[in-house]
């Protein structure tokens, strides 16, 4: 190893941001920032202030004084800072699962006569379950991209003039494989179909250019690299020129054109409002603003550079200290997100010991340890300590 972890931390232009996060007593290495991001101190203050001065003092008047606009206001900011999306195309709404459901159904409505949905066999369970049940409900067929990385070639094999919507995760939740978003988007469009990107593992760590890439739809979590907090609501992006015809299936009052008229008959609201359904989860979404401010300050190019440096360092350490483990993640940094997964038959057995030591990676059945390296809240020292701990526990397990 040419440089020690301490030298890497000392040379890291983003190291100053580590102190913006609340401390976690007893945690020596938090390596799961892609399952649940750490809280920013600023978010604690913001949530407290919203409770004390907005909720407590303004009471019901708070809705007219800004709460109702938060889904589109924070959505626009997220679009600008993290997605390469001009305003009016991003909202904060329900869970990722519910937004995926709404967008897939709306996408099917935009491609009448087409009866196939495309998804990857290895995609996150919620994405697959939704696609399978929607297909069953609508009498459609699922065309699977079989196990392995989602490359443009493999997507091209399954899209056709029958495809309505293709659903792909930008970064595979298990392997960390980063799909070629512009190339896949183009080839899906060449087949006349629509593309929905699940950005759960790329939002906040990868620069996106959704507008420039011509992406139709995107949905993603805000509690992973965006540090919105447990169960923080997800975001959806709908390209501007698709919004007029966009019809989603959960026709609630707050997605309607004139919610407070309480009138007869649903008429979809203007622009991204129509993606919404019910009352916005205000307390759940306000903290997201602090991460967005931080991303804006640090810049996604620098964040991506540190993400690559962290994963590169982790892979080099694993090569050296965990020679029996199998790297499930691409070695090419251009094809990799911000986590790496290592497989070893004894990993399941050593997980409890790691957690007892305050070393917190994720475990993915059957044999994968997943290290989620959130660039603004993870140090090189934590990566080193974590991989040394894994090596020690493996040795002790034998
Ligand atoms: C984390 C994750 C989800 C989570 O969906 P929720 O509705 O927030 O539980 C969905 N898809 C992918 C790819 C994820 O990584």
Termini separation comes to 26 Å
**Roughly what percent helix?**
25-40%
Find the CATH topology of the largest domain.
Aspartate Aminotransferase, domain 2
> pLDDT below 50 for ≥5 consecutive residues: which ranges?
none
Helices and strands, in N-to-C order?
HEHHEHEHEHEHEHEEHHHEEHEEEH
Rg over alpha carbons = 22 Å
Compute the number of structural domains.
2
Number of helices: 13
Q: What is the CATH architecture term of the largest domain?
A: 3-Layer(aba) Sandwich
Q: What is the class of the largest domain in the CATH system?
A: Alpha Beta
User: What structural class results from the helix and strand content?
Assistant: alpha/beta
The named CATH superfamily of the largest domain: Type I PLP-dependent aspartate aminotransferase-like (Major domain)
Strand coverage percent: 5-15%
Regarding quaternary structure, how should these chains be classified?
A: single chain
- Mean model confidence by pLDDT: 97
Draw up the topology in text.
Layout: H1 5-11, E1 29-30, H2 41-58, H3 70-83, E2 90-92, H4 96-109, E3 116-120, H5 125-138, E4 141-145, H6 152-158, E5 163-169, H7 181-190, E6 194-198, H8 210-213, E7 217-220, E8 235-238, H9 282-285, H10 288-298, H11 300-321, E9 326-327, E10 339-343, H12 347-356, E11 359-360, E12 362-364, E13 368-372, H13 380-397
Parallel strand pairs: 1-11, 3-4, 3-5, 5-6, 6-7
Antiparallel strand pairs: 2-8, 7-8, 9-10, 10-13, 12-13
Helix pairs in contact: 1-13, 3-10, 4-5, 11-13, 12-13
């Amino acid at each position: 190893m040419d440089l020690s972890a301490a030298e890497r931390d000392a040379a890291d232009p983003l190291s100053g941001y580590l102190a913006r996060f609340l401390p976690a007593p007893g945690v020596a290495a938090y390596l799961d920032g892609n399952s649940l991001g750490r809280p920013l101190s600023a978010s604690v203050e913001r949530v407290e202030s919203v409770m004390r001065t907005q909720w407590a003092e303004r009471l019901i008047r708070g809705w007219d004084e800004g709460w109702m606009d938060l889904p589109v206001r924070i959505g626009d900011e997220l679009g600008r800072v993290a997605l390469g999306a001009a305003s009016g195309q991003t909202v904060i709404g329900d869970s990722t699962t519910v937004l995926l459901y709404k967008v897939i159904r709306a996408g099917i409505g935009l491609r009448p006569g087409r009866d196939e949905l495309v998804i990857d066999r290895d995609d996150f369970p919620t994405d697959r379950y939704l696609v399978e049940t929607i297909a069953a409900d609508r009498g459609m067929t699922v065309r699977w991209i079989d196990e392995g990385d989602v490359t443009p070639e493999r997507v091209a094999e399954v899209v056709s003039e029958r495809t309505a919507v293709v659903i792909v995760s930008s970064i595979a939740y298990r392997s960390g494989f980063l799909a070629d978003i512009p190339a896949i988007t183009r080839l899906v469009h060449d087949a006349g179909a629509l593309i929905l990107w699940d950005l759960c593992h790329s939002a906040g760590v990868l620069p996106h250019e959704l507008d420039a890439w011509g992406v139709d739809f995107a949905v993603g979590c805000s509690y992973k690299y965006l540090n919105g907090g447990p169960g923080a609501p997800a975001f959806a992006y709908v390209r501007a020129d698709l919004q007029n015809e966009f019809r989603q299936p959960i026709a609630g009052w707050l997605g309607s054109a004139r919610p407070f008229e309480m009138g007869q008959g649903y008429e979809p609201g203007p622009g991204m409002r129509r993606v919404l359904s019910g009352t916005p989860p205000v307390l759940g979404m306000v903290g997201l603003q602090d991460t967005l401010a931080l991303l804006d300050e640090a810049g996604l190019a620098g964040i991506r550079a540190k993400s690559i440096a962290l994963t590169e360092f982790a892979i080099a350490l694993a090569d050296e200290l965990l020679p029996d483990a199998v790297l499930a993640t691409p070695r090419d940094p251009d094809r990799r997100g911000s986590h790496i997964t290592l497989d070893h038959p004894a990993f399941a057995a050593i997980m409890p010991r790691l957690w007892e030591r305050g070393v917190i990676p994720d475990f993915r059945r059957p044999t994968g340890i997943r290290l989620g390296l959130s660039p603004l809240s993870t140090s090189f020292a934590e990566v080193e300590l974590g991989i040394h701990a894994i090596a020690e526990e493996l040795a002790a397990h034998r």
